[in-house]
Write a structure and sequence with these properties.
heterodimer, A: about 170 residues, Four Helix Bundle (Hemerythrin (Met), subunit A), 2 domains, globular, B: about 120 residues, mainly alpha, Helix Hairpins, 4 helices, elongated
C-alpha cells in the first residue's frame, strides 16, 4: 500500500463512521457534531482528488455556514431545558431494507463498471483555482450569473419566510 | 465456487490500490446514509442533514470522475461548485421553513405536520 492508499482509507473511515453517527445517533446535537467530521472527511477526499479549491470551499461553506445554520436550527426549535432533545425514527425496518438494497446496488455497480480505471498518466496541475476561475468566467458564465441570482432570491426568501410569523 | 474464488481474488487485489471505484463506493455508502436519514428521521432538521449527506456524496462522484478522466477534465469540479452553491441556498430556505413550522405547530417532527392531508 502506498501512502496515498493509507490516507484514503483513514479519511474514508472517518467520513463513513461519522456519517453513520449522523444517521443513527438518537441525540440531534451529537448528530450535528458528527456532521462536522463528515464534512472534514469529505474535504480531505477532495484534496486526495486534486481539488484543493473545492476542499477549502467545502470547509468554508459547509462547516462555516451550513453546519452553523443547522446548529442554530437545532437550538431554536428544541427547547433544551424542558423538552427532550432526542429525536425518534419512523419506519426504520423498511427504510433500512430499501437503503441496504440501494447501497449494495450502487457500490456493486461502481465496482463492476469502474474497477479497472486508474489515475491518468499525466499528473494534473498543481493548483486548480486559476483554471476554475477561468472556466467560471468563460464557458460557465451563464450558470454562474444565474447562481448569483438564485443565491440572492434564496437569501431574501429565507429572510421573508423566517420572519413572517411576527406580522400575522 | 470457482467463480466466487476468482471474484474474491480479484477483489482482494483491487482493494489496496485506491482507484476511481473506491471513491465511488464511499460515495454510494454516504448517499445511502443520507437516504436513510431522509426516509426515517422524524425531526425536520435531521432530514435536512440527510439532504446534505446526499449532496456531498454527489459531489464526491463529480470530483472523482473529474480527477480520473483522461485529461483531468475540470467540468466536474465546476459542477461541484454549483452543487455547493445550491446546497447553501437549500439549507437557508429549509431552515427558514423549519422555523416557520415550529412557530405554527410547536413541533418540527415532519410526521405530525399533516394539515394538508385533511
Amino acid at each position: 500500500m502506498q501512502l496515498f492508499d493509507i490516507v484514503f482509507y483513514v479519511f474514508a473511515l472517518i467520513t463513513l463512521v461519522s456519517g453513520g453517527i449522523v444517521v443513527f445517533s438518537r441525540n440531534i446535537v451529537y448528530a450535528a457534531f458528527a456532521l462536522l467530521f463528515t464534512f472534514f472527511g469529505v474535504a480531505a477526499l477532495y484534496v486526495l482528488l486534486h481539488a484543493d479549491f473545492l476542499a477549502v470551499t467545502q470547509v468554508l461553506i459547509y462547516v462555516g455556514g451550513i453546519l452553523v445554520l443547522l446548529l442554530f436550527g437545532v437550538m431554536l426549535t428544541n427547547n433544551v431545558i424542558s423538552v427532550e432533545i432526542r429525536t425518534g425514527t419512523v419506519q426504520t425496518i423498511p427504510a433500512l431494507i430499501i437503503v441496504a438494497i440501494v447501497a449494495g446496488t450502487l457500490a456493486g455497480l461502481s465496482y463492476a463498471t469502474w474497477k479497472g480505471v486508474g489515475a491518468p498518466a499525466a499528473a494534473g496541475p498543481q493548483t486548480t483555482t486559476g483554471t476554475l476561475g477561468q472556466m467560471l468566467m468563460t464557458s460557465y458564465v451563464i450558470p454562474f450569473e444565474i447562481a448569483s441570482v438564485v443565491l440572492l432570491v434564496a437569501l431574501i426568501g429565507a429572510a421573508m419566510t423566517a420572519r413572517r410569523h411576527r406580522n400575522s | 465456487m470457482g467463480s466466487f474464488d476468482g471474484f474474491w481474488n480479484e477483489f482482494s487485489a483491487w482493494l489496496p490500490h485506491v482507484q476511481l471505484a473506491h471513491f465511488l463506493v464511499v460515495s454510494a455508502i454516504l448517499f445511502s446514509f443520507g437516504i436513510y436519514a431522509i426516509a426515517s428521521r422524524r425531526n425536520g432538521i435531521m432530514v435536512l442533514m440527510g439532504v446534505e449527506l446526499v449532496l456531498n456524496a454527489a459531489n464526491i462522484n463529480f470530483i472523482a470522475f473529474s480527477r480520473y478522466s483522461p485529461d483531468m477534465n475540470f467540468d466536474g469540479q465546476v459542477a461541484a461548485i454549483f452543487v455547493i452553491i445550491l446546497a447553501a441556498a437549500e439549507a437557508a430556505i429549509g431552515l427558514a421553513i423549519v422555523l416557520n413550522i415550529y412557530h405554527r405547530f410547536q413541533t418540527v417532527n415532519v410526521d405530525e405536520v399533516s394539515s394538508l392531508k385533511e
